[in-house]
Amino acid sequence: MSTVAKFPEKIHVASSYDVRKIRKDFPILHQTVHGKPLVYLDNAATTQKPLAVIEAIENYYRRDNSNIHRGVHTLSERATEAYEKVRVAAQKFLNAADHKEIIFVRGTTEAINLVAQTYGRKNVGNGDEVLITAMEHHSNIVPWQLLCDEKGARLRVAPINDRGELQLDEFEKLLGPKTKIVAVGHLSNALGTINHVRDIVRMAHARNIPVLVDGAQAAPRMQVDVQALDCDFYALSGHKIYGPTGIGILYGKTKLLEAMPPYQGGGDMIASVTFDKTVYNRLPYKFEAGTPNIADTIGLGAAFEYLNQLGLEQIEQHEADLLAYATKSVEAISGVQLIGTAKEKAGVLSFVMEDIHPHDIGTILDTEGIAVRTGHHCAQPVMQRFGIPATARASFGLYNTREEVDALVKGIRRVQEVLG
Q: What is the pLDDT, as a whole number, of residue 267?
């Protein structure tokens, strides 16, 4: 049985969002590291998993383990039903128009590569342009570089300001007749900046340019409505939204997906095969070659259910409170500089310390039981933009507390004592 806590609906966070009760759902949080209580602030890299997700995966392997779609025996039918229910859950989670617009992939990276190698190869040619922003994760840079190198196209980059905000006027100037696709992060993993996706989509669509949104960081932190955004593609990773690794979602509008060629060959993407011709399967299976990641897909479904029960709006408010509290607390420490101070941001607090390398910050914080991420966060162009090699990054999740922010502040002061 799941241990997911039940919460009343439509009640203010102050009275209904019981973070201490929520923390009981996450076994990994209840441990010590170097003799100190674990303070896990690396949620932008990966989130921890509630018992509901762990038990869903275990239950599949204990009770229903079987391949799906083609079996007529009971185990296969049960596994198929559980697997396809997750597609419907993902549709509802993103408010997609149809479940066939949901493609299961390994994660955001594979989703972006899929679009680059299918839509991109078909529609981008010599002299054309792909437009991204200066705050993108490597996964939303390299696939487009590969495509541009192959096709003789050009990768254009819209600039960001000193706060880490996209300069929308400059972005719009870069849209033109040669632009064949726009790819933009919804929320920066390195800066926490929330991009104005609706405005970006509106500008691009005015010129008949499709838009892909990297939603890896946004999906766990805010309600995402792909129909309201009107984006053409949206990508997310299961392990960022309290689900398993190795599973993710690509949403795409039906008309675009139907016109795109397959990404890989074999297994479920086939309707029929002869040595003369292969007929491809209908959506969404056209893009799901081979035996899928069944267990982790089912685990992802449990994560969707868990988040829905808590309520994305309440999670967003909880994390906004943590970020505001952490920003004020860390800013007050002499010798610490925040990197990424956008007016609209969420979940991520990146910082540097005078004369102390971020890797040393992370190492000393670890001795205090505090897990943060240090380095360039797979966003080296962002680091170059700010003239730094790396940052230390604390990123918040639905189970973090103000007391853990206090522990971070105490840990930063300890870093200064040791290395300052």
A: 85
